[in-house]
Amino acid sequence: MEEVTLVGIDLGKHSFHLHAQDQKGKEVFRRKVTRRQLVVSAATWNSMKTDGLKFTLMKR
């Protein structure tokens, strides 16, 4: 599997859309996930450098 260098997350009320790209800009994956699935998915990603922004997922 290609190495993911960029992940975009479209935030919604009940679900999130994820889009990941490799260094060349080629799509690695695109999927729709729930809040719980997002936390599980993000835990499996290799550590990535952020763009100076920090986001915290909070339980409701």
- Work out the helicity level: 10-25%
Could you tell me the radius of gyration in angstroms? Answer: 12 Å
The coarse silhouette is globular
Q: Reading side by side through the largest sheet, how are the strands ordered?
A: 1-2-3
Query: For the report, how would you describe the main beta sheet?
Result: 3 strands, antiparallel
Proportion of residues in β-strands: 25-35%
Structural class: alpha+beta
Oligomer status = single chain
- Kindly, what is the distance between the CA atoms of the first and last residues, rounded to a whole number of angstroms? 34 Å
Low-confidence stretches: 56-60
Per DSSP, the total helix count is: 1
Calculate the mean pLDDT score and round it: 78
Q: Tally of extended strands?
A: 3
The ordered string of helix (H) and strand (E) elements is EEEH
Which properties best describe this structure?
single chain; about 60 residues; alpha+beta; three-stranded antiparallel beta sheet; globular
General description of the model:
The structure is a single chain. The chain is an alpha+beta fold. The chain has 1 helix and 3 strands, in the order E-E-E-H. The protein has a 3-stranded antiparallel beta sheet with strand order 1-2-3. A hairpin with a 4-residue loop joins strand 1 (6-11) and strand 2. The chain is globular and about 30 Å long.
Summarize the structure.
By secondary structure, the chain is of the alpha+beta class. 17% of the residues lie in helices and 32% in strands.
Question: How are the SSEs ordered, and which strands pair?
Answer:
Blueprint: E1 6-11, E2 16-21, E3 27-33, H1 35-44
